[in-house]
Write the structure tokens for this entry.
Amino acid sequence: MPSENLAGAGWRQKQKQKRRRQQQQQQHQHQQQQPGLQIREVWADNVDREFKLIRAAIEHFPYVSMDTEFPGVIHRPAKHPAAMTPTERYALIKANVDALHLIQVGLTFAASPSAPPAVAFQVNLREFDPRLHRHAPDSIALLAASGLDFAAHRARGVSARAFAALLMSSGLVCNPEVAWVTFHSAYDFAYLVRILMGRKLPRSLPEFLKYVRVYFGPEVYDVKHMMRSCGLFGGLERAAAALQVQRAAGRCHQAASDSVLTWDTFRQMKRLYFAKEGSLQLCAGVLFGLELQEDACNLR
């Protein structure tokens, strides 16, 4: 018969092994429930390598969710935005975008409209300097509180000209096989169109929308526009919460993290509201606030 000390040691060893197995099971369950999504930070010193990965990603993941961060707005409307026409809204967007600098671009890739995000890239640009350039102070304070390091952007960021050249050669733009998903994206596309053009935005809204279609193709889905058909209201966080979608990676008010949340919100909306074949395509090509015709995104 073993001694009490040996029996106690054996019991403690069994308990230790039991706890280890429980921890391993919990870790495995956590990994199954919340698979890790990698956000790849893109700076000047690794931009060529990361864009090689982007070119490769497009071959397998042709659905791209996009978000940007910029220095807020410095020109404000003379009347309530709801009372403005699409032409007036575009004039306001153009005034702001032509005067300001883009800070960050987030790109999230997925295989299909129903697939989870596969990988996300966060491109950090260098042009904006809050000490020199115009901006909305509250917007810059919010971005800084969300983790954006403006000194790092100035020191290590990708130049807008280099980003535009890489974007043009990446297969992301001017490619009808790529579908784009965004949220309230008029400003996002305006900044990208301006960078790709290398000059100020077109004067008229129809001309701007023509450039959006040339660069980004016919399959552009603005989740904010789609929400009108789903009885959903508010910003991205509110829509995601209503759909029980959680942020899968990163922090809010960072472009890549918001692009991931936009994608997950989109695919949940598709599952719940756009399951009927062809219903999703009715929403394509319309940017919220810049609709030139009556909303065609109708499920009934």
In short: The two ends are 79 Å apart (CA to CA). Strands lie at 39-42, 63-69, 104-110, 119-124, 179-182, 220-222. Residues 4-33 form the longest helix (30 residues). The chain is about 45% helix and 10% strand.
